[in-house]
Amino acid sequence: MSTQIILTTKVEHLGDEGATVKVADGFARNYLFPKGLAMPASATNLKRVESMRKKREAEHTAALAGAKEIVSQLTKGTFTISAPAGADEKLFGSVTSADIAEALKKEGITIDRKKIILEHPIRTCGHYDVDVKLHAEIATKVKIWVVAAEGGAPAAETAPVAEAPKRTKAKKK
Q: What is the DSSP string of 75-96?
């Protein structure tokens, strides 16, 4: 026997969301229905799936518009991050995606650090073009300047190092 169902999400080898397909009774009852991947085909369920599709489409359109607005703000200029660095402009530590997200937040642009794509952390001063993927359809580059922080090296490196006391062997009695 076979049952006609409506897929609520895309299921590999069956179809996309909203598709009406026929599957074996046991497959529908034991796998698709408990996992929420499908529902029985009926007029009310068809209406429900159509309303869910319209809602997702509206959310997608709103997210796309928000991403386009953020892209326009990101492409307007460059952003500066100051970090402690040595004389050869190597950073004491590194600049990560979280640091870049924080610098953008100070400028009024809120982006999740997971959307900032760095192949590896930035370890030297200079100019960098950093990829930002805001949406599945929208990606851009942000211009970041990493500069040495005021004050130069941290206090631990500029303080003189005291010599360790010399050890002497204890004499056996």
A: TT-EEEEEE-B-TTSEEEEEE-
